[in-house]
Amino acid sequence: MTERATLLSKDDSRRFCLVIGICSLALAIVEFVSPRTLAPTGRWSWLTAPIYESLGAYGLAILWVALGAFLVLISMKRGD
Question: What pTM does this model have?
């Protein structure tokens, strides 16, 4: 059979997930050290306002930690 064309190899995609996961964890640290004090307004407020309202000032930090942890775990997944 023919092989599927992919943009990245499996090793490259794992490295990409790891790098984006680490960047997300770095954003979580920034949000934790300097949380937003007011409810978000602007272009992305439709996404960030419900998170802020339900989880408080550290809601975005929790979101970044969850995303970063998920991506790091995906990058460590073994198997083909």
Answer: 0.80
